[in-house]
Design brief:
By secondary structure, the protein is α+β, with helices and mostly antiparallel strands. It is 32% helix and 22% strand. It contains twelve helices and 15 strands. The strands form three sheets. A seven-stranded mixed β-sheet has the order 10-9-11-13-14-8-15. A five-stranded mixed β-sheet has the order 5-6-7-2-12, with helices on one face. The radius of gyration is 21 Å and the shape is globular.
């Protein structure tokens, strides 16, 4: 392979909007963490990081601005881990941290990465941090096997791992019609810019899976339904004009469209209820959400949405507008619409299947979305072994949404251990 193959990358289709949205009030950053069973050695993390960046070059970049588009170029600098902070997912500034678009943190037995979403999605970041842990363990003298999540740093990177999979698969001839209304938001006392309260619930995957199965739904459908139900009850108590309640759910497209890409390859689907249609029980919301998600996640429909998004990027007017004007347009659009069409977000990474010799050193994973502008319920879920960890990222001081969510789980027989960065 040509040594210059990984010297620069065009932003993938999903990433093109993120630079224009990156502002003093919002930055699309998410966090993945791994809780090990032994204390972390920072020096070994840095050695492992150096090796892993050679294997996963799409993280070893900084962002540049051309006349028409932003692009990534290989970053010649080196990156170091640092002690962890209380305020996760704080804003990425392109000229800070030597231009790197991710950060690595350690604290006690935990290693975490904050990732700017233009770099990668949850799956790609999971592969990156899992490979980092694998290399860290190898340097510690442990035996390490490799699979799709733990890559071998001694191998050469693959061109297929940096492809823009949207361009590869978007070929639908059918228009995608999505009519989004402004929806209900649970508001409260806003925290300062880029500050966020995080709460996680650690629970048994077997318990949650059994409960979901008893209702005839998946774990993602169950959590999304419970999120909507909690907001539904809260809106009723406020006795205001009732608005739709909508949960946004990112879906990993690799399951329907095979790709090895470690960059973005997700689409956000929406499920909703309209309280003006009448009263809802939790069971009714479960049935509705399950049906909506199954219909929306049809590969032909997701291909249509993918194609629509790509057409916007390739539109001749958009294509040849200077990047400064594109960014301004995206910024103004985001200020006006922002999260107005979504009440809550639920991103479930699913179960991380690691080689046994790596898995035995890990207690659990955590996954945090960054703080929203309006959403007080941005949730991330991830499973390792029998430990399912669900997090809330809340831009408000109040904690009634997450408290009601976890209390409802406990009432249903799920044992939940709560941790938080709140005082």
């Amino acid at each position: 392979m040509n040594s210059n193959s990984f010297d620069w990358f065009k932003l993938d289709n999903a990433a093109t909007i993120f630079p224009g949205q990156n502002s003093s009030t919002w930055s699309n950053v998410f966090r993945l963490g791994i809780q090990l069973k032994k204390e972390v050695d920072p020096e070994l993390i840095d050695k492992a990081l150096e090796n892993v960046l050679k294997r996963i070059p799409c993280f070893n970049v900084r962002i540049r601005s051309g006349f028409f588009w932003h692009y990534f170029e290989k970053n010649p600098e080196s990156i170091k881990s640092r002690p962890d902070v209380r305020n996760y997912c704080y804003r990425i500034k392109f000229k800070e941290d030597k231009g790197f678009l991710f950060r690595v943190f350690y604290l006690g037995k935990r290693i975490s990465i904050d990732v700017y979403h233009a770099l990668s999605d949850g799956y790609g970041a999971t592969v990156f941090i899992s490979t980092l842990i694998g290399e860290y363990l190898r340097l510690s003298g442990e035996k390490v096997s490799y699979n799709q999540y733990v890559l071998d740093p001694s191998e050469a990177p693959k061109k297929s791992e940096v492809e823009d999979a949207y361009c590869r698969y978007a070929n639908s001839k059918a228009p995608y019609n999505r009519k989004d209304k402004w929806v209900y938001h649970a508001t409260g006392t806003k925290l300062p810019k880029h500050m966020c309260n995080y709460t996680i619930g650690i629970m048994s995957f077997k318990q949650v899976h059994a409960l979901s199965k008893s209702y005839g739904v998946t774990v993602t459908e169950f959590f999304a339904s419970l999120l909507i139900y909690v907001h539904y009850k809260k809106q009723l108590q406020e006795k205001k004009k009732q608005r739709e309640i909508c949960a946004q759910i990112p879906v990993n497209l690799r399951k329907a469209f095979p790709s090895e890409t470690l960059r973005n390859f997700v689409l956000c689907l929406r499920v909703k209820i309209d309280p003006n249609l009448g009263e809802y029980t939790f069971e009714e919301i479960l049935r509705s959400v399950s049906l909506q998600l199954k219909l929306a996640n049809d590969p032909k429909l997701t291909n249509s949405l993918m194609t629509q998004n790509l057409k916007l990027e390739k539109n001749p007017v958009m294509k040849y507008l200077p990047v400064c004007i594109k960014d301004l347009g995206i910024s103004v659009s985001f200020v006006i619409t922002g999260e107005q069409t979504t009440t809550a977000l639920l991103s479930n990474l699913g179960s991380i299947a690691l080689p046994e010799d790596v898995a035995q050193h890990i207690d659990y994973y955590t996954f945090f979305t960054g703080p929203g502008k309006l959403n007080g319920a941005r949730c991330g879920a991830v499973t390792h072994g029998d430990k399912l960890v669900l997090s809330f990222s809340n831009c408000y001081e109040e904690s009634d949404i997450e408290r009601e969510f976890f209390t409802s789980l406990v009432k249903m027989g799920i044992h939940v251990k709560i941790e938080s960065n709140r005082n």
